[in-house]
Design brief:
Elements lengths: L1 H17 L5 E18 L2 E11 L6 E13 L4 E13 L5 E17 L2 E14 L11 E13 L5 E23 L4 E27 L4 E19 L6 E21 L1
Parallel strand pairs: 1-11
Antiparallel strand pairs: 1-2, 2-3, 3-4, 4-5, 5-6, 6-7, 7-8, 8-9, 9-10, 10-11
Length: 262
């Protein structure tokens, strides 16, 4: 099952990167974070983290977040967790857009000597704590993330790794309509509810973990977001659809994070 999912994710990545020339390039951004990890008992741990993200090309602050999570390791190959995050996002025009996010995840892994292959399934619920037009975007977003990763622990204090993440949006707005290409207008429009399901992002990652000591570690990574998003313009009462289009964009981010463990 893991090998089939791995092949599927590789096919999806190749499809996205093949179409990179038609994607809008947003630029390069930076992520920094500081966190702690408390192992309460051998199988149960609690973590907390603060993260700051810049806008592409360092034009300002994109997002600050505070997150906390709990994870439990059932066996050497199976673990599960849950978490909460408060996201303080800032749009390009400076608008403050707070969000509350909860998630559940389960991870299966298998080791081959110094190599470890893992597959994480994460269900994510995000509440937008600001007003939105419900016919253009969903207030409470539901998404499923599939994260396949591989790590190599054969070195002394450095663990290189790579991963690929596929995010599926599960409840975006869905419209039915007839489009007249000559007039550029929509006819027979109907809002069908929050039923649109599609692949909204692919994120390949490469990085390394540096264990300075048993209590201190630093994580370096480079990641690229290939986003596929739906852009809808509709009246606030849902009686008129002005436009609907898909936007493809790409953004490269570098990240450095510090973790204190005890």
């Amino acid at each position: 099952m893991t090998s089939k999912r791995f092949i599927l994710l590789l096919i999806i990545l190749l499809t996205f990167t093949r179409n990179a020339s038609s994607q809008e390039w947003e630029g390069v951004a930076l992520r920094t974070s500081a966190g702690m990890n408390w192992r309460i008992i051998p199988k149960l741990s609690v973590s907390a983290e603060y993260q700051l993200r810049t806008q592409p090309n360092f034009q300002g602050i994109d997002r600050q977040s505070i997150a906390t999570s709990v994870s439990y390791k059932f066996t050497s190959w199976l673990s599960a967790g849950t978490g909460y995050s408060f996201l303080a996002s800032h749009s390009s025009n400076g608008t403050f857009k707070p969000r509350n996010r909860c998630n559940l995840d389960i991870t299966g892994s298998i080791s081959f000597g110094s190599w470890k292959l893992s597959l994480k399934e994460k269900l994510q619920f995000t509440n937008k704590s600001y007003s939105v037009n419900g016919f253009e975007e969903v207030q409470n977003n539901l998404a499923l993330k599939n994260i396949l990763s591989v790590k190599y622990s054969g070195l002394d204090k450095i663990v290189p790794y790579a991963s690929i993440e596929a995010r599926i949006s599960l409840n975006d707005p869905l419209w039915s309509y007839d489009y007249n290409g000559q007039t550029g207008k929509y006819h027979n429009t109907h809002f069908a509810g929050y039923k649109s399901v599609y692949l909204s992002r692919i994120r390949p990652v490469i990085g390394l973990e540096w264990s300075i000591s048993q209590m201190h570690s630093i994580d370096f990574r480079v990641l690229c977001d290939f986003n596929h998003s739906q852009k809808i313009k509709a009246s606030s009462d849902g009686t008129a659809l002005t436009s609907i289009a898909w936007k493809d964009s790409a953004k490269l981010s570098t990240s450095i994070g510090y973790t204190f463990s005890f």
